[in-house]
Each structure stands twice: as structure tokens, then as C-alpha cells.
Amino acid sequence: MLEDLFRLDNKFIVITGATGLLGRKHAKAIACYGAVPILLDLSQKKIDDFANELNDKYDANAIGFEVDITNEKMVKDNADKLIAKFGRIDGLVNNAANNPQFNDSSKKHHTRLENFSLDIWNQDLAVGLTGAFICCKHYGYQISKNKKGGSIVNISSDLGLIAPDQNLYSQKSLDADLQPVKPVSYSVVKTGIIGLTRYLATYWANKNVRCNAMCPGGVENNLSASFMKKVTAKIPMNRLAKANEYQGTLIWMLSDASSYLNGSIIAIDGGRTTW
Ligand SMILES: NC(=O)c1ccc[n+]([C@@H]2O[C@H](COP(=O)([O-])OP(=O)(O)OC[C@H]3O[C@@H](n4cnc5c(N)ncnc54)[C@H](O)[C@@H]3O)[C@@H](O)[C@H]2O)c1
Which helix H or strand E contains 265, and what residues bound it? Predict the structure, then answer.
């Protein structure tokens, strides 16, 4: 029915990085529209607390598991567990990303390409790209065995579509070697996610598995006034996003409202990539 087009009732939807800034918003929207959110992240305590919050508010039967998505055995075991428990998986949101903490006081900034550590590069790719592949391999395969198929949403970024403008991150007081930049791994992961999306959109299309990528712009989250001034000047709407401004698009991408959407790369960036 037309009025139910966006509903997700009785669907089991896996969300990676579910207790992060945007993962929480994705999971709330999924719970609110009637699906069972299956929350994956690295801390069982945080996951359980968040699942309780969703269940209190939405009566959602949310459940969550500590699964490191870079560990294929953990992901496969979890996919098997979900099938034993629920019988099927209907959706997957590949949202997790690495957020490395740096602790260096060297004379060169660690984010700069010429200093960027191979370890961090490997970790970033392991979570953002290989982790998404592993999740598609196991949860996505289960979706492909579902009679009705399902929907995979990969979270890329506006920086999957355009190069970062490193002037945004520069700080007047610093020497050239100490200027921070957006790490190269971010561009590579977010562009790679788009390739994964196109591959999957065709791979299981005959099983009614749709796969699309969402490319969010930056979210307002304790950013300095000078960064805000520079970045908003690059956005036609002249502002960053609020963290809840991706929820509507996510529900559309997961629900029957987007039943003919497949292989699409959807920018939601206040128009930044239009300029
Ligand atoms: N926040 C933004 O401005 C923004 C903009 C564009 C795109 N994005 C993308 O949206 C997604 C979510 O961003 P966010 O801001 O919520 O990030 P976040 O750092 O708040 O959340 C990421 C979550 O992923 C989890 N995670 C990390 N490694 C993991 C692993 N190996 N296994 C399982 N979980 C793991 C973390 O614990 C964390 O909870 C990311 O893919 C990010 O690149 C964010």
C-alpha cells in the first residue's frame, strides 16, 4: 500500500559501526520504521545499552553483537547465528569506519601523505573497505538467499566523489610539514566503496538484492569556527549536515520506496559536489 511504502516492518537489518555518531541515527530510523536493528560494533556494553534504549523507545527487538568486521570468522559465525535465530537477513548498512587516535609529537604531521603510516593505511582499508567486503560476502550472501532479496546500503562520503580541499584543514600558525590534511586512506576507502557498490548492484541483481551507496557530506560535530567558516563556503546550502539528516534517505534506500534503485551513488551534501 502506498502509505506503507517506506515501512520496514518484519525486516532484519544489520548495521555496522552501529554505536558511532551516524550509526546510532541509522539504527534509530530503522527501529522507528518497524525493522529489527541488528547492531554490530566493537564494545558489547555500548551495544547492549543502545539496544535497550531502542527497545524502550520503539519496542524494536533490537539486538547487538560485538563483531570486529575485519575478522572474517567473527562475521561468518555471526551471520550463521542470525540465520539460526531469525531465518533470514533483509538488509545491510555498511557504515563502520576506522577512527585512529594519533599520539605523536613529531615535527611532521602524521596525516600528510609523505608521513602517513602504512599501519594506519592498512587499518583504515581493513575496516572501511575490506570490512565492507567481508560483510557483503557473509550477510549479503544470506540476503541473496532470501526469497524477497533485500537492500545493501554502503556509506561512502562526498569525499568518495571529489578530492578533499586540503586548504580547509590548514592552520595559519603551522609550518608546512606540520599542516594537517585529510588522510589519503579516506579518499581511497570512500571511492573503493563506490566500486564495491557497482559490483554488488549487478552481482545479485537476479536475486533481487539491490545495492546503492550514500555519500554524506560533513556533519556538524564540535568543529572549530575557522573550519566551519571555510567549509560552509564550499557548500551551496552554506551549512554542514545535522547528524539526523541522513535518516530519511537511508529509510528510502532500505525500503520498497526505492524498489527500482540499484547501483546508484546518492550524494547528500547540501550541494557541495554540484559546485
Ligand atoms: N561524520 C561525518 O561527518 C561523515 C561524513 C561522511 C561520511 N561519513 C561516514 O559515515 C560513517 C559513520 O561515520 P561516523 O561519523 O558515525 O563515525 P564514528 O567514528 O562515530 O563511528 C564509526 C563506528 O565504527 C565502529 N568500528 C570501527 N572499527 C570497527 C570494526 N573493525 N568492526 C566493527 N565496528 C567498527 C566504531 O567503533 C564506531 O562506533 C563512516 O563510514 C564515515 O566515513 C561520516
Answer: strand 265-268
Band the pLDDT of 99: cuts 50, 70, 90.
confident
Query: What is the spatial distance between Cα 166 and Cα 187, in angstroms, rounded to a whole number?
Result: 12
Predicted confidence (pLDDT) per residue in 119-132, tens digit:
999 999 999 999 99
Q: Which of 75, 157, 215, 227 to mutate to test the pocket of ligand 1 (most atoms within 8 A of CB)?
A: 157
| Contact by Cβ (8 Å): 151, 145 | no
Q: Which of 22, 3, 29 is nearest to 247 (CA)?
A: 29
Backbone angles phi, psi at 49, to 5 degrees: -60, -45
Owning domain of residue 222: 2-274
How far apart (Å, rounded) are the C-alpha atoms in residues 143 and 146? Answer: 5
pLDDT at 31 over 70: yes
Helix or strand (DSSP H, E) at 32? helix 21-32
Which own/partner pairs from 53-60 qualify as long-range (CB within 8 Å, at least 24 positions apart)? 54/27, 54/28, 57/28, 57/31, 58/28, 58/31, 58/32, 60/31, 60/35, 60/36
**CA 218 to ligand 1 center in whole angstroms:** 12
Pocket test for ligand 1, best of 28, 39, 41, 196 (most atoms within 8 A of CB): 41
Categorize the per-residue pLDDT at 105 as very low, low, confident or very high, splitting at 50, 70 and 90: low
Query: Is residue 68 in contact with ligand 1, taking CB distance under 6 Å?
Result: yes
First to last CA, the chain: 38
**What is the domain-level CATH number for residue 145?**
3.40.50.720
The pTM assigned to this predicted structure is 0.98
Number of domain units in the chain: 1
Structure letter (DSSP) for residue 92? E
Minimum CA distance residue for ligand 1 atom 15? 21
